[in-house]
Design a protein that fits this description.
CoA binds at residues 190-193, 312, 524, 585. The chain is α/β, with parallel strands linked by helices and 650 residues long. The protein starts with 10 loop residues before the first helix and ends in a 6-residue tail after the last helix.
Amino acid sequence: MADTIAVKREWADGATLSDADYRAGYERSLADPEGFWREHGGRIDWIRPFTRVKNTSFAPGDVSIRWFEDGVLNASANCLDRHVAAGRGEDTAIIFEGDDPAESRRISYAEALEETCRMANVLRADGVKKGDRVTIYLPMIPEAAYAMLACARIGAVHSVVFGGFSPDSLAGRIVDAQSGFVVTADEGVRGGRKVPLKSNVDKAIAIAAKGGQDVSRVLLVKRTGGEVAVDPARDVWWHEARDKAAATCDPEPMGAEDPLFILYTSGSTGKPKGVLHTTGGYLVYASLTHAHVFDYRPGEVYWCTADVGWVTGHSYIVYGPLANGATTLMFEGVPTYPDAGRLWQVVDKHEVNIFYTAPTAIRALMGQGDEPVKRASRRSLRILGTVGEPINPEAWLWYWRVVGEERCPVVDTWWQTETGGILIAPLPGATALKPGSATRPFFGVRPELVDAEGQVLDRAAEGNLCIADSWPGQMRTVYGDHERFEQTYFSTYKGKYFTGDGARRDADGYWWITGRVDDVINVSGHRMGTAEVESALVSHKAVSEAAVVGYPHDVKGQGIYCYVTLMQGEEGSEELRKELVGHVRAEIGPFAAPDKIQFAPGLPKTRSGKIMRRILRKIAEDEPGALGDTSTLADPAVVDDLVSNRQNRR
Ligand code: WT7
């Protein structure tokens, strides 16, 4: 096979699955999905076993996805109780590593169960019922996992909102989910800096009230002890309620297709969508992928550096690892605090075996040189993973050579919020690796390449990435808007799930994800719609029109490039530029801060008024020679100004 990488130590000997196992398993999973998933559905505990396995349709106008539909289970009981019942109560469930390197703690399965039960009882006493939506806006502390599992325990649907989102963004999610309950903390701490979570929640609740959604209860975790406003009629301190709550709580029997959580994600148009995942299929899929893609072995320490505010945190910090009885590390901080050696220092401190992070972090650390890595022994490391955006071969090779010393397989895992779990990734030891390729589909996954006309391409080809049939971890609907679900994912190529990504399949059948083909950008692994940034910009009084595109950025993967047309009489100054950056940060969140703002007297529009983004992308990429045909523009002259004032010159 062309250009594959060999693992130095004879790793394949120790691997759980071989290449032949993968091929046989994959073939069987496609030939007999019922049999395959019936068997693997049994890896979790069912209160009432399922008899039906797959009942799914991607048919236009009738998209419906059900897995294990007559089974009854509880996700929190699967993640906690069953390990305690099996005598593993003293095993470590969570290692908490604080932002401050002096702070860490090990939490056993028995303790995690007790804390989860107490929180479940507190939520119940506060009136949370089965099916109610609970918004969780917490830092990376164990209480975030307890809160998710407590919701799952009583059948409430959690909606975790990343702590980096602004009050406005939080409010939008509270309103859309019709959520009357919020779990938050006084403040978060990241990289030595405080994040005013409670104050953001107070602002968000006021905004949500105007949007017609009241929040009647806020459960407040004391993290820093910082001064916060407490409304005694609405806010309850967790540490006070906890001590009064019972330490046991019967898990609610849930149907396999009862909702487990909503997680908001950005698309090419409109407001963020509430991606809805249900209980049975999601848990089976998160658990099976975690076990195989990371080749998890009992007793090992597994660390995923994501935040629980993103799907990676849901599936591969909380649900997958805990369903498998693993030890999962929760890290509150950032890779560069107190210095660029932090991640590797933590690897040594807790003897981490499996490490999973994002290309943006790898690139940022690569830029700091090898010394901070080499300061740590990293002896414990066995597998390295990446997720969130395409990884460039240079970063892959640095990860492989410098961090893993050519003995740890690198698993590049491609998936999405919508897919619930990993769809394309190598299996360590079984799959020959190619730097920059997510390699092969997981069991049961049928990727397809489709051209613009909807023709399926075979053999080596490049096109739009679709998935031809359902897998258990797939999202079930857009919360409250099934039509939008069908429209977004199943209408472009009828009968197929369209991912929004482009991909290439090489002659060995390996998959290379080339990035989004829609108006979604991926900035440091944070997904956002260019339309969201545009609407934040035009909400500023000086702005008349805005168009936003992504451009290649060495560390972030993509940077945010904004073309802004100002109102009559406004002057484009450095000061206004700063103000607009601050405005977008405040509207969406700090991670959405524009990298480049170009003041433009006009935008390139067709005669029917449509902005030609292709031209804007090329200018942002500093390729003014590759604009293509501009003759269909209403005013071709605007292009000259855009080119001569471009902000990204390499
Ligand atoms: C988008 C999904 C999946 C959890 C984190 C992001 C991009 C994700 C890879 C990868 C190339 C990747 C895709 C995808 N993406 N993983 N290994 N290689 N691209 O979840 O926020 O829903 O974003 O991230 O473009 O569509 P998300």
